[in-house]
């Protein structure tokens, strides 16, 4: 019997935890984004949209599956 979990394709996007290079705030976001993501604390750009995988400006602390 087929296990359904095995035939579901892996999503191409992951949650990542990014540390703001300006204030050190850590924030969770997708690594694929259609818009720029700003730090909740200081407003610095954490990720820029490139039309696909985000251009991460801060430090990636962790990748959450
Ligand atoms: Zn910040």
Explain how this protein is built.
- It is built from 1 helix and 6 strands; from the N terminus they run αββββββ.
- It is mainly beta and 65 residues long.
- The strands form 2 sheets. The protein has a 3-stranded antiparallel beta sheet, with no helix packed on it. The chain has a 3-stranded antiparallel beta sheet with strand order 3-4-5, with no helix packed on it.
- A hairpin with a 6-residue loop joins strand 4 (45-48) and strand 5.
Mean pLDDT: 86
Our estimate of the beta-strand percent is 35-45%
SS element count, helices: 1
Task: Tell me about the largest β-sheet.
Answer: 3 strands, antiparallel
User: Going across the major beta sheet, what is the strand order?
Assistant: 2-1-6
The general outline is: globular
N-to-C terminal Cα separation, in Å? 26 Å
List the helices and strands in order.
HEEEEEE
SS class? mainly beta
Bound compounds, each kind once, are: zinc ion
Helix content: under 10%
Low-pLDDT segments, ≥5 res: none
Number of strands: 6
Determine Rg (CA atoms, Å): 14 Å
